[in-house]
Amino acid sequence: MRRHPQLRSAPLALLLAIAVVALVPKARAQDATVDSIRVMVEGEMAALRAPGAAVAVVRGDRVVLEAGFGVASAEAVEPVTPLTLFRIGSTSKMVSAAAALVLEHEGTLKLGDPIGRYARGLAPALQAPSLHLLLTHRAGFWQEAAGNGLHDDAALGARVRGWTGDRIVGPLDDIYSYSGPGYWLAGYAIEEATGVSFADAVAQRVLRPAGMTRSTFRPLEAMTWPMAQDHRVDSAGARVVRPYPDDITTWASGSLFSSAREMARFMIALLNDGVVDGARVLPAGIAERMMTAHAQTPDAFCGYGYGLSVCRNGNVRVVSHAGFRGGSGSIVMMIPEERVGVVIITNRNGGIMGRSAGRALELLLGRSLPSGQGSGPPAAMAPARFPGIYVNGTDTIRVAAGAGGAFRFSYAAGPEQPARFTAPNVLEILAVDGTSVGRFMLVRGRTGAELYLHDGLGAYRKRTR
Question: CB 3.0-4.6 Å disulfide test: which of 237, 337, 340, 417 passes with 364?
């Protein structure tokens, strides 16, 4: 679904560990846990060949580690620091969702109302979803990747008013299906309800109160601060992405610019019921609402709150979100009951450093996290139910019956691949050598009338004609 000219003047040490900064007393800087986290981040960053990265670790109501690694651009030697801005991709959803909850708290809107009450000019089929369903990915919306587009504030409204009802995957509240466009529509409802642009509404209700003074959705504002360039990494190396990819209509789902330091402030607010540095920056109760699962994935292992994934690893609640854009990546992971969290941001396409984030939490806890186990789909179905065409937006999956009970799987216009049915309700996609390269579950929607192939994130509705 989603290249770096060799740095001739910078030594390897500069590439991997330049500008490490820790806002902790000198004695604690030598703490084995903090040092281990730093070394781990350096190692994963090197494995990804990311030009730069930034990390912040939170315990309780303070930052115990913040650090920058590498460089902001593969074509220069400006070091990454904890204040360097990166575009954090879909991790932005937690900030967008927080703005909606703040607006509800102040009485500007209600999350349970149909958005047609606030957003003008929508096609009739798009007026019914509530912000609650949009923000928890249960509004039946298709998925679509962000790309390049317009940059003026009026573009968001113009885009969503041009949508028709054929962009619906399934009925309202029928199944969890992750959707960026659902957040774009929520962003339009927010700006219509407030009378200001989406970017300004979020800045006024969330970013500025939280002390995230440099964080912004606006690229022309972000570039006035030290900012990491986006990079694509391939066999040729890491290359700066040009032109810089942007589309204002997609900001609500994944285009916030922020830094490790300022994302740490947002984590502190979530872990301390909206209080940072002794001051209330989010209304009481909003953080817990965000970190409570309001929608379940089909395997019943994880759920989705407001802008946050909520998983149970044994009796441990792990709250997280990852994101990437054309040349950057980020991950936030928190354990609310222990009041610990970590954010890692990189300037490399697909640079989601989940291994380091998870291990950092374990080091903070002093124990390993138990493995998560879902309960599986609720009702088993026969393999004969699998063959058919499944659709999510412009993406199409075809499953055909093969010889001897085998299946053939194809995605979009791609080649056919072998597949096999494994109980309960799981279709494994196989490589030529027979190894598993993916899996989908066949599940019914809540109403029982619709069948979906689900990969744990998105749902593909089975065509009936």
Answer: 340
Dihedral, CA of residue 376, residue 183, residue 84 and residue 329, to nearest 10: 40
- The bridge status of strand 295-296 relative to strand 279-280 is unpaired
247-260 tens-digit pLDDT: 999 999 999 999 99
Residues 6+ apart with CB under 8 A from 195: none
- pLDDT-based confidence at 262, cuts 50/70/90? very high
Q: How far apart are CA 391 and CA 188, in angstroms?
A: 25
Q: Estimate the share of the chain in helix, then strand, then coil, as percent rounded to the nearest 5.
A: 30, 25, 45
Per-residue pLDDT tens over the stretch 357-384: 999 999 998 888 877 656 555 677 888 8
Helices (H) and strands (E) counted in the chain, each on its own, are 13, 22
**Domains in the chain, start-ordered, CATH in brackets?**
1-375 (3.40.710.10), 383-462 (2.40.128.50)
- Which residues make Cβ contacts (< 8 Å) with residue 344, sequence separation at least 6? 41, 53, 54, 55, 260, 330, 331, 353, 356, 357
